[in-house]
Design a protein that fits this description.
Elements (H helix, E strand, L loop, with lengths): L3 E6 L2 E6 H13 L4 E4 L3 H8 L9 E5 L3 E11 L4 H20 L2 E13 L1 H7 L6
Parallel strand pairs: 5-6
Antiparallel strand pairs: 1-2, 3-5, 4-5
Helix pairs in contact: 1-3
Length: 130
Amino acid sequence: MSNNNLDVVEHGQIKIADEVVGVIAGIAATEVPGVAGMSGGIGGGIAEMLGRKNLSKGVKVEVGEKEAAVDLYIIVEYGIKIPDVAWQIQESVKKAIENMTGLNVVEVNIHVQGVNMDKDEKEENPLRVK
């Protein structure tokens, strides 16, 4: 990757790739209740068709030497309070990245791309024959 976090220490350098920060952000976001999944673009869909689970799907990161900014593209469950879930995602992602990488997270932007209706469809259409 061309944009790697570079940290000069006494005994050498520590580089954290953008993709690593993206995976951390993606996992932290999907662990928040109310998040149905991440919304990936064409690249995410192709990776899934090839049988690879893309853990940084729906995540865009910019990593500098000391700071990081994150954009997350998510799908939420129907019926949840979107602002509350978005706030929880921001807190969870910021904490996870800062704890694991030492980077200061300056932005976590949430882009709600869709609503998952699967749960309600099952409840509205019970089996006709038991």
